[in-house]
């Protein structure tokens, strides 16, 4: 009996060792995404295709609904990694944070919003916005800052040449327009395509195309977390890169099918057409490297919006080590 117990124990220990060896010591990382958006398709692909698991990571994803709430969750250790606009890391630094928030993996590289008109316009030009009621986004957020940047680029003063509404919560902007507020609105997909399908509005311009390449949505974490979990952050970045490469090499239909579980209330054809629109304008970054040119463009946009107290050093708030290693496949 003792011999059988000993053999059983030995077998159990051996099996445990094998399982542990296969998992490589699974580590959990909690992500807080600023909103649920198909704009983040590579992240959902990485989750659904098992790329995080391949790297030995257990990922818990939660939606934190808004830049302020996302950053509060990160700073208070409610999450480990935030997926949010790079401008939030600059805001934290401007407040004199002792534990800065570091951008380590870029997910999207253009603005993701579109200008939607209530009326169909065949030959749109930005000067048609003058004198109109424009339903914008939250002051200080990337959508609003990019929107203002594009309007100024087209010689329109957003605070003088039109009636700018920006006191409506991000999650309620689309429904406010659908209810009759505004003649123009700034919307992400799939709302833009959904409004076209339902005859509520018509896409007349892309803010992503107009504003150029920027580090629009980035994975970031506190310097203290980065210092203590470098191996996990590398594995995390590797998984994101796999997701980016998968998206870059597959059709809108294939991508839509993979990420559909995250958007169960969106029709497959709308999901597919929205992804196609983002692919065509290069919104999804094909690697996680946030370069200095993009960082400077971001600060130009913030400066134009009056939200930049001082320019922040790229080297202090951006760490490309993990992204470069992931891309090199080391």
How would you classify the helix and strand content by structural class? alpha/beta
Number of helices: 16
- Largest beta sheet: strand ordering: 2-1-3-10-4
What do the pLDDT scores average to?
92
Distance between the termini: 50 Å
**Approximate strand percentage:** 15-25%
The name CATH uses for the topology of the largest domain is D-Maltodextrin-Binding Protein, domain 2
Assembly classification: single chain
What is the CATH C-level name of the largest domain?
Alpha Beta
Number of domains: 2
* Total beta-strand segments: 10
Whole-angstrom Rg: 22 Å
The SSE order reads HEHHEHEHEEEHEHEHEHEHHHHHHH
Largest sheet: 5 strands, mixed
CATH superfamily of the largest domain: Periplasmic binding protein-like II
What is the CATH architecture term of the largest domain? 3-Layer(aba) Sandwich
Q: Name the helicity range.
A: 40-55%
* Shape category: globular
Task: State the low-pLDDT regions, or none.
Answer: 1-24
């Amino acid at each position: 009996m003792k011999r059988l117990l000993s053999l059983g124990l030995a077998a159990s220990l051996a099996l445990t060792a094998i399982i542990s060896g296969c998992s490589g010591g699974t580590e959990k990382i909690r992500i807080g995404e600023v909103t649920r958006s198909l704009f983040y398709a590579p992240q959902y692909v990485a989750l659904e295709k098992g790329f995080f698991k391949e790297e030995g990571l257990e990922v818990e994803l939660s939606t934190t609904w808004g830049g302020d709430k996302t950053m509060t969750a990160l700073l208070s250790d409610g999450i480990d990694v935030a997926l949010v606009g790079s401008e939030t890391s600059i805001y934290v630094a401007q407040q004199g944070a002792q534990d800065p928030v570091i951008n380590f993996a870029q997910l999207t590289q253009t603005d993701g919003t579109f200008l939607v008109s209530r009326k169909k316009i065949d030959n749109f030009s930005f000067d048609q916005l003058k004198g109109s009621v424009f339903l914008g986004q939250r002051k200080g957020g990337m959508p609003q800052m990019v929107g203002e940047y594009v309007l100024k680029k087209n010689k329109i003063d957003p605070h003088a040449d039109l009636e700018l509404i920006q006191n409506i919560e991000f999650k309620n902007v689309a429904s406010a327009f659908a209810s009759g507020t505004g003649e123009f609105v700034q919307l992400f997909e799939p709302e833009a395509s959904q409004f076209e399908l339902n005859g509520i509005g018509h896409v007349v311009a892309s803010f992503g195309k107009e504003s150029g390449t920027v580090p629009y949505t980035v994975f970031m974490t506190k310097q203290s977390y980065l210092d203590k979990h470098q191996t996990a952050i590398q594995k995390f970045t590797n998984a994101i890169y796999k997701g980016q490469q998968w998206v870059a090499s597959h059709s809108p239909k294939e991508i839509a099918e993979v990420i559909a579980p995250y958007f169960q209330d969106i029709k497959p054809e709308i999901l597919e057409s929205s992804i196609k629109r983002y692919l065509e304008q290069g919104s999804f970054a094909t690697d996680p490297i946030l370069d200095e040119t993009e960082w400077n463009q971001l600060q130009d946009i913030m400066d134009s919006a009056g939200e930049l107290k001082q320019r922040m050093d790229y080297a202090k708030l951006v760490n490309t080590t993990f992204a470069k290693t992931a891309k090199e496949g080391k």
